[in-house]
Design a protein that fits this description.
about 10% strand; binds zinc ion
Length: about 475
């Protein structure tokens, strides 16, 4: 199938590294560049050589070491910058000089203090100079999305004529909306002479949380390169997240019929490596690679997941390199999930034993939110020490508070006492403990840890695992 190929331009080491708290030394950059190579990105923007000696050295070392991808060095639109970038890129197997110059009136007037005519001339000259050194030249009109559109077209046309091979359209301040950004790319495709000879690129910032959406909108209107970063790091609110771009295309080929060369099973490791190097943690709910991205706690989700992962997972954890889909055991977990975790810990139980473990688990989960394997093992030990007996006392564990009352009676007793499965649902142990009613002839057991009388979970069917957590 001939899906258009999207070039993934990773700028983690340049735009990403510029963001507060994300600076890296040369060795760390090299290490990450090698991981980006493994990940399969097409272009690595290794730094801004004129910015510092460290940046220069990083570009130089990466150029010499990482041979497959294109290595880009950033330069302002002036001879000194372009020469310095080229110097750093000398050893690269596939060098690219990336020249940028702001084009919006606000930048021209207040930052650069030049006219549009001067801007046009400077862009043209810088690209021409870069082209005299390097066949692969990218040009970025900084703040393109706030640039007067006819003027932007004029600049883009001029740099293409001067030899640019990629034209990048930055939403530098993260101001654009997806339809708007897509429309801008379409306009350039329609109005700029020679645009069909170059690659159009997106570079979107996430100030309104739209960096990925804008990038995808750009691709749909003709962009064939996406600039992005691991974990979405970058100036202010960050850049488009590489992992989200790649997986959006992979999970929804019906909407985005494009392909990238990224080996998605290396996404998680790349994300972890960056977080370790910078010590900037990934937010737990971050799409694709966050700690919770594949964690399911709600009982209905866990039950469905165990029966068929497709019920709640649109992609497998393995496809992005997450070691295992972790089922977090919490108070909304069903007994099916609990049984599986026990099995994974090497303990198989008969129904009655599992009932007992489940009862205690629910009470515990209500108190400590997230039941770790160590807690569960301790609980299992308590139960297997003979605590299933109706007269036994639970909670001998050092970790948990001591039991305050005898265990509930065995299942058969309560069944014969006619306890209704609905009003003895385990959810009530944690949520309605105080209101639970004792049945005539049935002693009211205490809540093991809280002391309040509760009814208990009997007649618990698989169906109830479904209901709980809806
Ligand atoms: Zn940027």
């Amino acid at each position: 199938m001939d899906k258009p190929r999207i070039t993934i331009f990773d700028t983690t080491l340049r735009d990403g590294e510029q963001s507060p708290g994300c600076s890296m030394n040369v060795q760390e950059k090299l290490h990450l560049a090698q991981q980006l190579d493994r990940l399969g990105v097409d272009v690595i923007e290794a730094g801004f050589p004129i910015a510092s000696d460290g940046d220069f050295e990083a570009v130089q070392r990466i150029s010499a070491t990482v041979r497959r991808p294109i290595i880009a060095g950033l330069a302002r639109a002036c001879t000194g910058d372009v020469d310095r970038a080229w110097q750093a890129l000398q050893g690269a197997a596939h060098p690219r000089i990336h020249v940028f110059l702001a084009t919006s009136d606000i930048h021209l007037k207040y930052k650069l203090r030049i006219t549009r005519e001067q801007c046009l001339e400077q862009a043209r000259n810088a690209v021409r100079h870069a082209k005299s050194l390097c066949a692969d030249v990218e040009f970025s009109p900084e703040d393109a999305t706030r640039t007067d559109v006819p003027f932007l077209c004029q600049v883009v046309e001029a740099v293409i004529a001067a030899g640019a091979t990629t034209v990048n359209i930055p939403d530098t301040v993260g101001y654009s909306m997806p339809e708007e950004y897509g429309q801008l790319i379409r306009t350039l495709c329609e109005k700029v002479a020679g645009i069909d000879k170059v690659t159009i690129s997106t570079h979107c910032h996430n100030d309104l949380g739209l960096a990925v959406a804008n990038s995808l909108a750009g691709v749909q209107q003709g962009a064939r390169q996406v600039e992005c970063t691991i974990n979405g790091i970058g100036e202010r609110a960050g850049n488009a997240s590489l992992e989200e771009i790649v997986m959006a295309m992979r999970v929804r080929p019906d909407r985005y019929r494009y392909e990238t060369a990224v080996a998605s099973e290396h996404l998680y490791a790349s994300s972890q490596m960056l977080a370790e190097i910078t010590r900037v943690p990934v937010q737990p709910n971050k799409a694709i690679i966050g700690r919770n991205a594949f964690a399911h706690e709600a009982g209905i989700h866990q039950d469905g997941m165990l029966k068929n992962p497709l019920t709640y997972e649109i992609m497998t954890p393995q496809s992005v390199g997450v070691p295992d889909s972790r089922l977090v055991l919490g108070k909304h977990s069903g007994r099916h999930a609990l049984a599986l975790r026990c099995e994974q810990l090497g303990h198989q139980f008969e129904r009655r034993e599992l009932d007992e473990i489940y009862r205690r688990f629910v009470v515990l989960a209500d108190r400590i939110k997230k039941v770790q394997d160590s807690h569960l093992l301790e609980l299992i030990q308590d139960v297997s020490r003979g605590a299933v007996s109706p007269n036994d006392v639970t909670g001998q564990s050092k970790k948990f508070p001591p039991a305050t009352a005898p265990l509930p009676f065995p299942r058969a007793a309560s069944a014969s006492a006619g306890i209704n499965a609905n009003d003895s649902h385990p959810a009530q142990i944690s949520t309605n403990a105080g209101q639970a009613q004792a049945r005539p002839g049935v002693p009211a057991p205490a809540n093991w840890f809280g002391g309040a009388p509760v009814t208990h979970a009997d007649h618990h069917t698989e169906q109830e695992d479904y209901l709980w957590g809806v």
